[in-house]
Amino acid sequence: MDAILLQILNGLDKGSAYALIALGLTLIFGTLGVVNFAHGALFMLGAFCAVTLQRLLSLSYETIDETKTDFLGNPLKVKTPYVEGWFGPEVGGAIIDWAVPLSVIIAIPIMVGIGYAMERGLIKHFYKRPHADQILVTFGLAIVLQEIVKYFFGANPIQTPPPDALLGVVNIGAAFGLEIAYPIWRMVYFLFSVAIIGGVFSFLQFTTFGMVVRAGMADRETVGLLGIDIDKRFTTMFGLAAAVAGLAGVMYGPINPPNYHMGMDFLVLSFVVVVVGGMGSLPGAVLAGFMLGILESFASTTWATTTIPGINQIIIYLVAIIVLLTRPRGLMGRKGVMED
């Protein structure tokens, strides 16, 4: 029982990333009808928002520390981060330590701005073009973005550690008499993902803006005839989808150190998640994300990889084939979507 629960938990953190990226993909496809192959790059850019803030907070200046000397007795030069000089060593040190969570604050406006610029500058010109054209242009954009990141940050993964208070593991099964030691940050990532997903669904379900967007997804022309500028609202949704992907990347950095190709690593799998869940179905994207993450976790166990070598690499695609053969629209797909 301990091992089973541990594998479920292991699948939840990767499933959380799949669900968040797939949610953004489905938001864009459901509102704009665009197959956005640059969405993985938005996930990557979010992770590098955390890297950038961490580097900015680590900028330092040199001072002479008379209390410390080298072997010749000369005073040593000590580097002091600017934030520690401004706010003191305790507060400044805490700000540096909590760089990743603080990155969420700056990542939201940055990712919304990137999403808005992407939609207004490029995507809007491909609304009425075939999906193949949309895939080609957004895939090309993803390559451009990843090469820009590679130029400025290099090709090697960059460590973005979580706060010291959230390091280590916790026995989450102690209350039930089980020994399940699990990393604290992975639990934080899962809870963060649930909060973001709940926020997006609440926004769409309970706000006037969200209700208009849902109506536009169902019948764009009728909403337009009512005098509502649905295009502006859909552009806002593109920015929201970019922010969701970016926040997923920000918080995933301590789990998997950011690198320039991490967006591509998640992109194909996230599209499989969207297809399995059902094109245009937000609940389907979230359900499929968590489900496939857990399946991938079980397929990565020693027993599974020994019994069927390589099963952890193909399990998601096998499930996709089975689902599409038995239910072509996906688990929760809507009639008529991608069927023309």
Automatic annotation (TrEMBL):
Spans through the membrane: 15-35, 42-61, 95-114, 135-153, 165-182, 189-213, 233-254, 266-295, 307-325
> Which InterPro entries does the record associate with it?
ABC_transp_permease, BCAA_transport_permease
Q: How does it sit in the membrane?
A: Multi-pass membrane protein
For this UniProt entry, the molecular function terms from Gene Ontology, in alphabetical order, are: transmembrane transporter activity
What is the organism of origin for this protein? Aliiruegeria lutimaris
Any single biological process term in GO? amino acid transport
Q: Which UniProt keywords apply?
A: Amino-acid transport, Cell membrane, Membrane, Transmembrane, Transmembrane helix, Transport
Q: Which family does the entry's similarity section mention?
A: Belongs to the binding-protein-dependent transport system permease family. LivHM subfamily.
Q: What is this protein called?
A: Amino acid/amide ABC transporter membrane protein 1, HAAT family
**Source organism phylogeny:** Bacteria, Pseudomonadati, Pseudomonadota, Alphaproteobacteria, Rhodobacterales
Subcellular location(s): the record lists: Cell membrane
Can you cite an annotated GO cellular component?
A: plasma membrane
Superkingdom of this protein's organism:
Bacteria
